[in-house]
Design goal:
The structure holds two protein chains of two kinds. Chain A has two domains: about 5-90, 3-Layer(aba) Sandwich (Rossmann fold), CATH 3.40.50; about 105-150, no CATH class. Chain A is about 25% helix and about 25% strand. Chain A has helices spanning about 45-50, 80-90, 105-115, 125-135; strands at about 5-15, 15-25, 60-65, 65, 70-75, 75-80. In chain A, the strands form two sheets. Chain A has a four-stranded antiparallel beta sheet with strand order 2-1-3-4, covered by helices on one side. Chain B is mainly α. Chain B has a single domain, classed as MetI-like (MetI-like fold), CATH 1.10.3720. In chain B, helix 2 (about 15-50) packs antiparallel against helix 7 and helix 8 (about 175-185) packs antiparallel against helix 9. The longest helix of chain B is centred in the N-terminal third of the chain and has 35 residues, at about 15-50. The N and C termini of chain B lie far apart (about 50 Å). The chains are: A alpha+beta, B mainly alpha. At the A-B interface, helix 2 and helix 3 of A face helix 6 and helix 7 of B.
Amino acid sequence: MSPILTISGLHKSFGKVEVLKGIDLTMQQGDVVSLIGSSGSGKTTLLRCVNLLEDFEQGSIELAGQSIGYKQDGGQRRRLSEREIARQRAMTGMAFQQFNLFPHMTALRNVMLGLIKTKKMPKDEARAVAEKWLERVGMGQRRDHYPGQLSGGQQ
Amino acid sequence: MNFSLFLTELWNARLSLLSGLGDTILISVASVVLGSILGVFVGLAMTYGAKWLRFIVRLYIDFLRGTPVFVLILACFYILSVVGLDLTAFQAGVLALTLFCSSHVGEIVRGALSAIPQGQTEAAKSIGLTFGQTFVYVLLPQALRQILPTWVNTATEIVKASTLLSIIGVVELLLATQQVISRTYLSLEFYLFAGFVYFLLNFVIEQAGRAVERRISIP
């Protein structure tokens, strides 16, 4: 079975500080992988590279057979268009350390936004999906609350 | 102060005063609407523009904010006609106030967008929103809530600045009042009356702003 995620020789620097020095990682579908390391060792940076929130200088990331963020064009490494990158970002889910919920939207609308705008799901279907998952995590009663009205755990 | 004489003259002058009030409202609304539209683009250019564009827009903002409105009005009226752009006094006045308003709104928009935590943009990106979608659904709604109180303040400043258009002959409320005074010599009464009307206009704007602020506030 081909891996769902393949990271090869990933290099990422912030100025003169090289944070990721040739990371290789392979994951199969259904794998649960934990990244463990000291503070500042680049765990978050690696995840941000997978989600293209950070550009990386060398190496490649393949997700479900697609090269993430860059393509080879006549031997040159070229960054994909913003639209294409936005489409690829939608293939992954990311939970931020600071949550980063949209404060002007209710819990329900926070969940629905990506489904409607990125997955192009009809509004009614997106609502049903969002309600189902909020219910599943015990947030059914809180779906119409804003992030500021939710506890840290609920957020 | 002869109050009954004032009331009689006020009634006699009602049409010219109402016309002046209408022009004041028209000037203010046109300047605030046009200035706000232009100001949003100025703010966007300041926040997301290329370095050269930010430099040009910064010059635009600093020049307009550093110039007295009085001078801007005179410049729009006299200088533009010298270069062959013949505007009526009304148009020149609205142009001057629009430019003034846009520089303030531009700075307000820039400040509001910069104040939104970077994590909001990243969260929007991470669910696959494009820049346009991020701006419309995530950044703009949050920025508007921050902009509103300062924007209302700018709108009231424009109402007050509209009185300066009297110097180029636009018969707005102040000039209409002065014309009535020159006929009746009831200067104290009519200036107090004009002051009260300006207060009333700005009071209504501020109350409307607060009502909208309450309505859209995030819990």
